[in-house]
Every structure is written in structure tokens, then in C-alpha cells.
Amino acid sequence: DGGITQSPKYLFRKEGQNVTLSCEQNLNHDAMYWYRQDPGQGLRLIYYSQIVNDFQKGDIAEGYSVSREKKESFPLTVTSAQKNPTAFYLCASSSWTGGLNQPQHFGDGTRLSIL
Amino acid sequence: AQTVTQSQPEMSVQEAETVTLSCTYDTSESDYYLFWYKQPPSRQMILVIRQEAYKQQNATENRFSVNFQKAAKSFSLKISDSQLGDAAMYFCASDYTGANSKLTFGKGITLSVRP
């Protein structure tokens, strides 16, 4: 079955440590996205990528970095500069078909906590 | 720029009855998409229904339907014959139709279903 795989499901970060969240999709989608979800909040866009080797900052990019070396993969690194990293992180992907955006598909998320 | 507002943080409905979830939005685009996503306790984001702004007819998906009032920038979700499995957070969202998909979410509403 096609879909989006996020790993790990749970992740713990120590002070001053960088951690990387994995996102892989086999839907052959060109675009991929990272969102952050805090309690009582909607999803906020961190970074997005429309094509391989290109990505743009979203609304809350500070303290995060991404890469897009392969179409299938869009890893997110939470750096030590992100002072409040505890949140639920969702990855999504979408395609561009018939001249229109198609709905985004979401992974199952990664819960990141500080030790 | 897009903004999405969900002003009701919580709602409750009796099983088998009908409930309406409210959403207002603002956008400078002439064409756009509106969505309702469901997030059950598993935290997976599930697309419930999509409305294309250029279509006057309200979208329906089985027990789910929308009331799209373009002039008022209102987009409510009606759930008929509510079931226990409908209990979840529901997010209203908007997106561009063009090349750069960028979902903007409201803060969500928690729906509980009373047996």
C-alpha cells in the first residue's frame, strides 16, 4: 500500500542535542511538508518542499532544518536552537494533477519530548 | 495570506443526532480549497471533505456535508446520524489551488459523542 511513514513514533531529546525525524513516502508525490502541532493548536507549517533539492521556510522554521535529496524522503532536524521542541510532528505529501493541487496525505506523526 | 478561525473549542452531540461545526476563513485568493480534517485519538489526520471555492454546490460525503457561504467566508461541517467513532478533533483548513500548496489550519474543535 502507498503511504507516508514517519519514524520513530516517539523520540526524546537531551538538552543541546540535535535530533532527526524521518519521513518517507511511496506515493510518488512531488511536494512534502512538515507541520508542528501543540496542544490546543492547529497544525503550523515548519518547512515545505515542492521538488527535489529545493525547500522553503514555513511559518515557524526557526530552530529546524530539512533536506530533500530524494523525492521519497524529507527528513526534519530539530536543532539545539529550538528551545521548545516538545510537540507532535506531522509529515505530509501532495501531488499536482490536472493543473490543481491534490489534498495532502499525512503520516502518523512523531511525538518529540525533552528529557 | 490565509487565515482560518474556529471559535468553538469543544462541542458535544448525542449519538444518532446531527451536529454542525463552524469555521470562518479569510483569503486574498479568488480560487481556493477548503477542507475539514478529522484527528482521532490515534493522532492520524484524515481528510473528511473538500470544497472547491469555484463550485457553488456544497460538497457531501456520506453523513458529512458542508454549508459553504462564499460571501460570508463561512464553511461549516454538518455530521448527520452521529456515531461514537465520530468523536475526534476536527480541523478546518484552506489551501491555494495553484502550484504552491500551503495548508492553513484553524485551531480545531473537540467533538465528543454521548452514547
What does it look like?
The complex is a heterodimer of chains A (115) and B (115). By secondary structure, chain A is mostly beta strands. Chain A has strands spanning 4-7, 10-13, 19-25, 31-37, 43-51, 54-57, 64-66, 76-78, 87-94, 96-97, 100-101, 105-106, 110-114. In chain A, the strands form three sheets. In chain A, strands 2, 4, 5, 6, 9, 12 and 13 form a seven-stranded mixed sheet that branches. Chain A is globular and about 45 Å long. The mean pLDDT of chain A is 92. Chain B is globular. In chain B, strand 5 and strand 6 (46-52) form a beta hairpin. Chain B has no helices and twelve strands. With 115 residues, chain B is mostly beta strands. The relative contact order of chain B is 0.34. Chain B has strands at 2-5, 10-14, 19-21, 24-27, 32-39, 46-52, 60-61, 64-69, 74-79, 88-96, 104-105, 109-114. The mean pLDDT of chain B is 93. Chains A and B meet through strand 5, strand 9 and strand 11 of A and strand 10 of B.
Keywords for this entry:
heterodimer; A: 115 residues; mainly beta; seven-stranded mixed sheet; four-stranded antiparallel sheet; 0% helix; B: mainly beta; six-stranded mixed sheet; globular
Summing up helix and strand content along with how strands pair, one would put the structural category of chain B as mainly beta
Question: Radius of gyration of chain B, Cα only, in angstroms?
Answer: 14 Å
* Largest sheet report of chain B: 6 strands, mixed
Helix content of chain B: under 10%
Distance between the termini of chain B: 41 Å
Number of strands of chain B: 12
